Amino acid sequence: MLDLLFVNISAILALKVGFNFESTSEFLKYREILLEYRPIYSVFVLGVFYLFGLYDSLWKYASIKEFISVITASLFGVFLVYLAFRMSYIDMVSNFYVINGLMLMATAGGIRFGYRMLRVIKVYIPNKSSGFLSGSRSRVLIIGAGDSGVMTAKEIQSHIQDRKKVVGYLDDDEGKIGELLQGVPVLSKINEVGQVVDELDIDEIIISIPSLGNKRRREIFDKCKKLDVKLKTVPSLYDLIDGKIEIESIRNVEIEDLLGRDPVEIDNPEIERYVSGKVILVTGGGGSIGSELCRQISKFRPSTLIIFDIYENNAYDIQNELKRSYRDELDLKVLIGSIRDRVRLEEVFAKYRPNLVFHAAAHKHVPLMQESPFEAIKNNSLGTLNTAEIAGRYGVERFVMISTDKAVNPTNIMGASKRLAEICIQNLNQKYIKTEYMAVRFGNVLGSNGSVIPLFKKQIEQGGPVTLTHPDIIRYFMTIPEAVLLVLQAGSMSVGGEIFVLDMGEPVKILNLAKDLIRLSGFEPYEDISIEFVGLRPGEKLYEELMLSEEGVMDTLHKKIFVVHPVEMDSSEVEKAMQSINEALASKDLELMEQRIKELIPKYRGITDTKSD
After folding, report:
1. For the residues 452-479, what does the mean pLDDT come to?
2. Beta strand pairing status for 398-402 and 356-359?
3. What is each CA distance from 400 to 309, 361, 380, 596, in whole angstroms?
4. What is the pLDDT of residues 127-143, one digit of tens each?
5. In angstroms, rounded to a whole number, what is the distance separating the alpha carbons of residues 359 and 148?
6. Contact of 219 with 203, CB cutoff 8 Å
C-alpha cells in the first residue's frame, strides 16, 4: 500500500520537477494524461517490483542487495511505462522518465531503509518506565578480524533487538591493527585481551577464528576464561561446512572447545567410491558411534542403509532424524535385533545381502562389565564372531569393526572382550577371502553415552562434589564426528586383516578437565565446587595405550590414521580357544573362562586375579 501511494506521488513530483513547479497549460495537459492512465502506470511499476523480489524480503533486514533490487526495478519499471505510453501514442515530456526513475528509487528505497533506520533509532529511546536507556547494550569484543570475525560483527549489528554493541576486534595481524572493519576498529593483538577488557568495560568476548589450531585456541581460551566476561565462540571449520556465520551459531564455550582438535581432512571421493550405491548395515546403529556412522554414510548416497540395534528408542530417534533430513532420498531400514541371535542375523543378511558392515554394537561401560563379565564376552566377543562369520558366508565386501584402546593389554573384561573380537576378525580374514575384515581402534569420544563429561556437568549442576577416580588419571579424547570420519577413511584403505589406530592427539589429565568444566560453569574449583577422589574402579587403568608392544606401527596416506602389524596366531588355535571360552561361558565358570581368555591374551589381568590379590 505504501508503494502504491508513493509510486503515484513520484509520478506527479517527476512531472512538477520537469516543469520547475510551474502550473503551465502544458503541465496541466500532461497531468491529466497521467491521472487518466494512473491504474495502468501503477500496475506496471508494482508488477515489476514484485517480479524483482521487492516483496520477498523483510524490511528490518534491508541491505545493499535490496538497494540494488530497488534501483534495477525502478529503472526497468519506468522503461516499461515508457514503452506502454509510446505504444499507446502518448507523448510525455522527455525528462519525465529520467526524473521519475530517480523518484522511484528514492521513495521505494526510502520507505524500506527508513523502516530499518527507525528500528536502530528505537534502541536509543529512553524507557520512561525505568528511567533508564532501553538501549543499554552489552559491549562485545571479537577475537579474530578475518572473514569470520567480520561476518560475526555484521550478524550482531543486524540483530538490533539483541542489544549488543561490537566495540572492537583483536587480531595478531599487525597490518590490520588500526583499521576499521564493518565500522569497527581493530584494536590490538590477541594477547592484550585482558588490558582491552579492562579499559573498554567489555561484557562479552566472541572468539571467531574457525580455522584456529588446537594449541593456539587453548592459549586464547586460557587467557579469556580468567576474565570476568561472558565467553562465546563460533563453531569450528568442521561445523561451518557452508561457511556462513549466523547469530544462532554463536554459542557458549564448551569443554569440547578446550579439548578441540584440528579439523579433519578426508578424501571424500575415496570414501564415496566404496560407500555410494552400496547396501550398508550398521550394527548398534542407534548408539553414539553407530548413529553418527549412519549420519555420515547417508551423505554418500548408499542404495540402502540398514540400522540394526537391540534398543528401539535410540533406533527410533536416528530413524526420525534421517527421515527428516533425507525424506524419500534415502532407502532406510530400521531393524530390531541382537548380534547374539544368530537366527536373527541370518534373516537380515539373507534378506538384504549387505555389501558393507560397520560393526559398532558393543557393551562399553568398564565398571558394569566387571560386574557382568559373561555378558561382556557374550556380546562383544561372541556377538562380533556371529556377525563377522555370517558376513563372510554371505560374501560381504568389507567388515569394519569399531574397537577401543582398552583392548590393548587389557586390565578389565570389557577390554579383553574387544581384544578377543579383534583376534576373531583377523582370523576370519584368512578364512573368508572375499571379505576384507578390519578394526579401527581409538580412545574416548566426547559426548558419547557414559562419557565422563555429562557426569561432571550433572555433578556441577547439583552443587558438587565432582568425583574423580585418581588425581593422575589421563585419557585420550576425540569428537564423535571426527572419529567416525576417520573410521570411514580407514575403511577405504583396507585390504583385509588390519587394525587401524587413530591419532588421538595429546592425552588429557582428567583433573584439569574437571577444573576447566567447573570454571566454564561460572564457578571456582575447590571454592564453589569441591573435587573428591574416590579411587580407581575395578579394571581401570591410569593410562590407556593404543597398541601392543609386539605390534609395529606403520603410517598410512592419512596423517591421523596408522596401521599396526597383526600379531600372528594359528587359526586352529584361535578357533579352539574361542570354543573353550564358549563352553566356560555356558557353565558360568568365571575362573575357567578367564584362563581360556589368557590363552589368546597372555597379558590380560582378569577379575579373578584382582580378587586373589
Report:
1. 83
2. parallel
3. 16, 12, 14, 26
4. 443 333 444 578 899 99
5. 39
6. no
Burial environment of residue 296 by CB neighbours within 10 A (0 to 12, 13 to 18, 19 or more): middle
Percentages of the chain per state (helix, strand, coil), in multiples of 5: 50, 15, 35
Place of cell 514484485: 50
> What pLDDT shows up at residue 416?
94
Angle between the N-to-C axes of helices 214-224 and 193-200, in degrees from 0 to 180, rounded to the nearest 10 = 40
Which DSSP category does 606 fall into? Answer: -
Encode pLDDT of 323-358 as tens digits. Answer: 999 988 999 999 999 999 999 999 999 999 999 999
Cβ–Cβ < 8 Å for 100, 14: yes
**According to the model, what pLDDT value does residue 50 have?**
73
Which residues have a catalytic role annotated? Answer: 406
The set of long-range contacts for 370-376, using a CB threshold of 8 Å and a minimum separation of 24, is 370/412, 370/413, 370/414, 370/537, 370/538, 370/539, 370/607, 373/413, 373/590, 373/593, 373/607, 374/585, 374/588, 374/590, 374/593, 376/413, 376/414, 376/416, 376/417
Which grid coordinates are listed for 384? 562380533
Q: Cα–Cα distance between 342 and 340 in angstroms, integer?
A: 6
Does residue 126 surpass a pLDDT of 50?
no
Under the banding of pLDDT at 50, 70 and 90, the label for residue 480 is confident
Q: Which amino acid type is present at position 115?
A: Y
- Sort 495 into a burial class: Cβ within 10 Å, 0-12 / 13-18 / 19+: exposed
The residue type at 604 = Y
pLDDT digits (tens, 9 = 90+) for 20-34: 676 777 767 667 766
AA identity, residue 407: A
Say if strands 132-133 and 126-127 run parallel, antiparallel, or are unpaired.
Answer: antiparallel
Q: Return the axis-axis angle of helices 342-352 and 383-393, rounded to nearest 10°.
A: 30
Residue 303: closest CA among 275, 325, 322: 275
* Residue 452 grid cell: 565422563
Q: Could you tell me if residue 196 is left (phi over 0), alpha (psi between -120 and 50 degrees) or otherwise beta?
A: alpha
Residue with cell 591410569: 542
Residues 38, 419: Cα–Cα separation, whole Å: 85
- Asked if residue 354 has a cis previous peptide bond (ω within 30° of 0), the answer is no
Strands, E assignment, 11-136: 126-127, 132-133
Q: What angle do CA 402, 450, 540 make, to 5 degrees?
A: 80
Q: Quick one: pLDDT at residue 606?
A: 79
Backbone angles phi and psi of 126, in degrees to 5:
-60, 140
Note the pLDDT tens digit of each residue in 210-257.
777 767 877 888 888 778 788 888 765 444 444 444 545 566 666 666
The rounded radius of gyration (Å) of the Cα atoms in the chain is 34
Angle at 476 between CA 510 and CA 310, to 5 degrees: 100
Contact 197, 139 (CB under 8 A): no
Q: Which residue pairs, CB below 8 angstroms and at least 24 apart, start in 64-70?
A: 66/112, 67/109, 67/113, 70/105, 70/108, 70/109, 70/112
Residue 439 · residue 561 · CB < 8 Å: no
3-state secondary structure of 47: helix
Say if CB 464 and CB 529 are below 8 A apart: yes
